[in-house]
Specification:
Blueprint lengths: L2 H13 L2 H12 L1 H12 L9 H13 L3 E5 L5 E4 L11 E6 L13 E3 L2 E3 L7 H16 L8 E6 L9 H6 L11 E5 L6 E2 L2 E2 L1 E10 L3 E2 L9 H11 L9 E10 L5 E2 L2 E10 L2 H25 L8 E10 L2 E2 L5 H12 L5 E2 L7 H5 L4 E4 L4 E3 L7 E3 L3 H18 L2
Parallel strand pairs: 3-6, 3-7, 7-18, 8-17
Antiparallel strand pairs: 1-2, 2-6, 4-5, 5-20, 9-16, 10-14, 10-15, 11-13, 12-14, 19-20
Helix pairs in contact: 1-9, 1-11, 2-5, 2-11, 3-5, 4-5, 5-11, 7-8, 9-11
Length: 406
């Protein structure tokens, strides 16, 4: 019997065990409670760097679900433990979901429900992940499931945007609660097929061009930051991009008036890749092209007028990483997915799992069941199609880790 068949056979035996069947049945029986938590948490605004209200409620719900030693770390992460033997020397398995959304303060996050369809900003990303984390804890506690490894349950801050994975960075820092973790599973969004074991790295930078400004008529000939920035940004499209690499200009701005030469212009730029070395090369190429555009604008300026200056500042850095497919964690995820009726799909992405991956800790990201769409828009939706199966998959992965290793 080859390794894959052995993995599937073991997963099938765990799936068919009376203990797991009770756990799966409980997830189905309490599905409405899971959806109620998903709706409640989604309707608590959690904009970037404003996760506190949602974190407080998540802490309360974890206690209600049977977690113990629920606390907040210095970065704002909610950290809890599944009841069972543990010591500070043990290496826990960590299951996490993120508290923050991409939506700014003031966004209407009211949930509209029609049958099994829920619509609201953040209802899937990561309202579903948080609800799945609670349901997983509740099901394990209710069925008295014994785990050999300590299980840490975490709701992280700062996963989205300029949060720059600050919560999980702290979690795995020298003073973080997960610094000795043996494995990490992030529950992010919906789905029961995808397995993220390749972490897309990202570099984000802000560039700002400054000049003297002036009147659009009487000072014509002075450097124009918007002209230079536009030329530089347009040239970025000419950069040949390696496979699994992207470049995007996300925001631009500048100027004060239609009849004034602007004093400044700025842009925020992101590059992504599965390989850190490509990020370094691409960021250098972006900056070289923008500097060339500034030099060209300075060359065109009227004699005796001030030069244009460019400043740059990093606003985000996410490490690339991967968990090899032959590790116990990825094998367990693939086998669990298969015996629950779906063929696993490898999906590269940028998630909380990037940080432990880059540190050499086995890590994956999976969905919390159901289906979803229009993520990161105000039209985001979640449909609870086989929702409990996604949570059962997470539980099955945990149980298979006991045999597969990490």
């Amino acid at each position: 019997m080859d390794a894959r068949k052995e993995d599937l056979a073991l997963a099938q035996s765990v799936l068919e065990s009376p203990a797991f069947q009770r756990l799966q049945a409980y997830l189905v029986e309490t599905d409405e409670l899971t959806l109620a938590h998903q709706i409640e948490l989604t309707e608590i605004p959690s904009p970037p760097f404003g996760e506190e209200p949602r974190a407080r409620r998540m802490s309360e719900l974890l206690v209600e679900c049977g977690a113990i030693d629920v606390s907040r770390d210095t970065e704002g992460n909610v950290v809890a433990w599944y009841p069972g033997p543990r010591s500070d020397a043990d290496s826990p398995v960590v299951v996490a979901a993120h508290l923050d959304t991409v939506f700014p303060e003031g966004t209407d996050v009211s949930v509209a429900r029609e049958g099994d369809l829920l619509e609201a900003p953040g209802i899937s990303d990561d309202g579903r992940g948080l609800a799945a984390l609670l349901a997983l804890c509740r099901a394990l506690v209710h069925t008295g499931t014994t785990l050999r490894s300590p299980l840490m349950l975490v709701a992280t801050v700062g996963e989205e945007g300029l949060g720059d994975l600050r919560g999980v960075h702290h979690l795995f820092s020298s003073e973080g609660a997960a610094r000795n973790a043996a494995a990490f599973i992030s529950l992010d969004g919906a789905g029961r097929r995808g397995i993220v074991h390749q972490g897309l790295g990202a570099r984000r930078l802000r560039v700002e061009l400054e000049g003297p400004g002036g009147h659009s008529w009487s000072d014509w000939g002075r450097v124009n930051p918007i002209h230079a920035l536009s030329q530089g940004l347009a040239s970025l499209q000419e950069i040949p991009l390696p496979e699994s690499t992207t470049l995007s200009v996300g925001r631009v701005g500048g100027g004060k008036s239609i009849n004034a030469i602007p004093q400044n212009a700025w842009a925020e730029i992101e590059v992504r890749s599965l390989h850190d070395e490509q990020l370094v090369k691409l960021e250098a190429e972006v900056l070289a092209r923008l500097e060339a555009a500034v030099a060209a604008e300075n060359k065109r300026r009227a004699p005796g007028t001030e030069r244009l200056t460019m400043y740059r500042s990093p606003i985000g850095s996410r490490p690339a990483g991967q968990t090899p497919t032959d590790t116990g964690l990825v094998r367990a995820a693939a086998a669990a997915t298969a015996v629950l009726g779906r063929e696993a799909a490898s999906v590269p992405s940028s998630t909380d799992a990037n940080v432990p991956m880059a540190a050499g800790i086995p890590a994956i990201t999976i969905g919390g069941g159901g289906a979803a769409g229009e993520a990161h828009t105000t039209g985001e939706w979640y449909r609870n199609t086989n929702g409990p199966v996604g949570i059962a998959r997470a539980a099955l992965i945990l149980l298979l880790l006991e045999s597969f290793g990490r």
